[in-house]
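Quick one - inputs below.
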Amino acid sequence: MSNTQDAALQQRLAQGDESAFREVFDLYFKGLVLFATKYSVDKEAAEDLVQDVFVRLYEQKSKIQFHTSLKSFLFQSVRNRCIDYWRSHKVRERHHGEILLTTNPETLDSQELMLQTELEEKVFEAIRQLPEQCQLIFKMNRFEGKKNQEIADELNISKRTVETQISKALKRLREEVYPYLKAIIVLVCWWF
Amino acid sequence: MPRVIPMKSMKEPKDISQELLLKYLSGTASEKENREVREWMSLAPENRDYIDHLQSLWANAQSYSLLDSIDLEENWQAVQSKLGKRTTYKKQLFWKIAATLVFFLTAAFLIKTFVYRPLEWQEFEASEQTTLTLPDGSLVALKAGSQLVYPTQFGDERRVKLKGEAFFEVEHNQETPFVVEADQTETRVLGTSFNLRTAAEFSSLELVLVEGKVSFTSPLEKVVLEPGQRVSLGAGGLLEKTTNTNPNFQAWKTGRLVFENTPMSKVFQDIANAYNTRFELSNEAFGNCTLTARYDQEGLENILRTLEILFNLSFEDKQGTYMVSGGSCQ
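Output:
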């Protein structure tokens, strides 16, 4: 998502372009949910909370002053709601006499979490673009932690095929994500 | 949740290539390359942390499965329904406000139209004797030279203003009283007929009630009249209520004059009032002579001629005032 693209969407949104709202939603929703879960918010609550952010964005679209960018506005809104959620959740937990051990989300570096989210999304997008079987094998291997032999047995294919598919997936990922990942690492390291 | 090591604490290692690290992370490094990285990791705990951090970024399987499990369409529908609820509420509120506004505007319009309609006054000055029909159907016979101010449409009362003399036949209406303003007095009636005269140069204010009931109010007093009674403004501005003995109070309207042993001073007064003129007697004593006569729409000229013959009088017209000279009782 380039800044000019973001600015163009922002403008169309302010002008009341309905399709722009859907585009913004498709572009940012998943990433924002992922971002919210990094604040110890479970998936359902994260989805609900991000939905509310979009409801507010829609209602206030002509009034919101984007100090930086649409993207920063969305991530900042989600972060604020996560903090609110954490506070009310903490209070409720205390009510039940339990001690909550999660970190105060205010102490987390939102910039860092945002970059991490973006990278993960990028990797995910690259996986999604793999051929179907390749994707499946990769997911079983990486997400479910299954051994190559287990996958081969489950899918009724040879272990060799599994290995080929995984290395194909990784090759594809490397091509798609390398430049990005490298840029991120260089960028982040350059900052500190 | 995966542990996230803040990138802040990380320093870019100078003794190993980024390319090699990425190959290692993605699992595409050769055996030799993997060994190289592991050796580098064992050199310092910072190196180990750095790799851990990159690994958490790279291989955060939980994040991918989370991303995979988010149903975009389902969430879009949820946003739409949340928006729908709000808009429905807003729409309802809008219509409630709109309906309330319409109601009050309509009510205000109706009140303005039917209750507080501002009265539009019209002024009628009679150059000759005229009978006016008022908006409520009441009849007003106006004497020549008199003036009546009345509205085009009556409101919650029927109010008119009179200057001069008029005979009123008021339509009966229990709800809306009929009020005549004249010389700071108010004649208030429901349905009746009466003769009202305001004060002029040669006559004083007088009200004679023919039928019905009226209340007459001056700035100081209030009297209620029965049929046949009259009220006039006496000396000192006090009201004098008496039984009306003058049959000619309506002569200006009917043109009928009746005299029965009437002193000439009174005869001239009645004729003057009926014909809007004035007489001046040079012979004071002649005023005590009496006249018995009936005149029915004879006209001023004829009446004067008969008087000339009867009493050997002579009339001289001096700018609207007749100078009466001579005269002796029959």
